[in-house]
Amino acid sequence: MARRRTGALLVAAALALTGCGSAASDALGTKGTAAPTSGTPTRNSAAAKAFPAAGVFDYQIGGSYPPASGVRIVDRDRTSAPAPGRYNVCYVNAYQAQPGDLAWWQHTHPNLLLRDASGRLIIDRDWNEALLDIATPAKRLAIAAVVGGWFAGCAHSGYDAVEPDNLDSYTRSQGHLTQADAVAFAALLAGIAHRDTLLIGQKNAAELATRLRGSGYDFAVAEECQEYDECDAYTSAYGTKVIEIEYSADQFAQACAARRGRVSLLLRDRDVVAKGQSGYVSRIC
What we know:
Elements: H1 8-18, E1 57-59, E2 73-77, E3 87-93, E4 96-97, H2 102-108, E5 123-124, E6 129-131, H3 137-157, E7 161-165, H4 179-195, E8 199-203, H5 209-214, E9 219-223, H6 231-238, E10 242-246, H7 249-259, E11 264-268, E12 282-283
Helix pairs in contact: 1-3, 3-4
């Protein structure tokens, strides 16, 4: 269902535990924005900007474009600049490796990629993404160092929140990851985000909504919850702080009839292409 497209001490601890590199900068990868330098003012979780519950939302992870005048919340990939004057959510693929990043993971952190008993990478075939190995505390900490660097980059760029994708990767892990692994890693990410004054959103995995809310998650990004009859799980946990994205016009119409004005609701094309490209669809209730 997913539309995928921090501090120095945490990085150092992770590298020491796993032997995955000789410098903290290695953990941040070559794609995206590195963590701020020590001269950058530290953001404080007490100063986090309030989430605009039920605000008009625009999902731009497939390419940035100027949002319409009434849009309050914009979600963009971490490699893109935030939208001026909006509440900005930074998309981060936190549980799987982007196809373009796989070579970096294999070269720099090969032991952080999930493998089967024969040593073959376990791949999410829908998106051609290798799963990250969050099966042990040491590996979770090491991967959190990498992802935490990306979170810091989001904060430094001016984003207000992050939404780490592929929380449900354990369901595609061929039994090598558990729900408990996903929840433990999610809790790590929440702590890192809040240290950088970023709110953090749960992406999909409705069955974990109550547990993640209890772990400090601030809002939810739910794809196709109308189709899968999961929307109540999110609203029960997060109230009106839910972003709902539907990809079917029929399901969107039903969602609007049920939750118009109560959550942020958007109909989008499944490829989430930028405005002006063929196939672009974006509609609010």
